[in-house]
Amino acid sequence: MNIRYSHIQESSLVDGPGKRTVFFVQGCETHCPGCQNRSLWDVSGGEEVDIIQAAKVLASIAKNGQITISGGEPFLQPAALAQLVLLLHVVYHCHVIVYTGYTWENLIAETNPLSKVNDIAFAHIDILVDGPYVKALDDDTIIYRGSRNQRAIDVRKSRKAGTPIVLDWSHPEVVVDEDGNVFLPIGLTEFAYDLGDVRSTRMCGQTGG
Fold it and tell me: 181 lies in a domain?
């Protein structure tokens, strides 16, 4: 089985806690206003890769086992996503975060014909960041998310509880990498100008550095 993807980012400090390798899938039908990844909307864009090969490459890049799957919309390819996260979890023992524009409730709803496939994926996902990007709820002091409506859900605890168990990702966080670079929410960059050169970036709507 293949999965369609755009690219792999070998190292990111903004797509979930820690230093993470990010796999960007191609294709999205949600089309959130203000989306930063419009180039990933085209369902025929990017290229296809065999899932076994994708898992092997990701695990080899992510020496620490920290992997994030973003997009695009990962659940637009539900069977491929389920197989990919299964391999990453069972074979390579990776910690997996998945970003989706859908909500937890929508993905597991009995009326969703893909709910059983999605639940297979959930069995091998550690954290699900759910919900569409809402420009009006964008907050430049939050971390790892684009807008405040998006939830960081502890998938394992939530499956046991039968209800979303949400992690607290509401507070600003400052990260210093091994080269001394400081990564922090854009809303806090004004306090860093005395530290050196400030370059503002914006990934997932939350980070400056």
Answer: no
